[in-house]
From TrEMBL:
Belongs to the UPF0213 family. Gene3D superfamilies: GIY-YIG endonuclease. Residues 13-90 form the GIY-YIG domain. It comes from Colwellia chukchiensis. It comes from the Bacteria. This is Putative endonuclease. GO terms for molecular function: endonuclease activity. Keywords: Endonuclease, Hydrolase, Nuclease. Pfam families: GIY-YIG.
Length: 101
């Protein structure tokens, strides 16, 4: 019997764009292929955490979207970062309300 190795192309992975709510109530935007892993990295003392979140712990997931590839995720992250604080907060509020259902 021959074992087949299946290689998943990076473009085939699902990507996420997310907002984290920081301890100072600010929002941090990022992209990842694993929300659980990335949230743990932001909350734990390791070098993979963004400098911004290192001094604003703990952080909690406040918003997430799924995208098909890294390019789409990066473009959406850029769009989200361009939103006003008011629009970001409304997006988060709508997301959390939807998740509560």
């Amino acid at each position: 019997m021959i074992a087949l190795k299946i290689h998943v192309n990076a473009a085939e992975k699902m990507w996420f764009v997310y907002f984290l709510r920081c301890a100072d109530n600010s929002l941090y935007a990022g992209i990842t292929t694993s929300l659980e892993r990335r949230l743990a990295e932001h909350n734990n003392c390791n070098k993979k955490a963004a400098k911004y979140t290192r001094v604003r712990r703990p952080v909690a997931l406040a918003y997430a979207e799924t995208l098909n590839n890294r390019q789409q995720a990066s473009q959406r992250e850029y769009q989200l970062k361009q939103l006003s604080k008011r629009h970001k907060e409304q997006l988060v509020a709508d997301y959390l309300q939807q998740q509560a259902r």
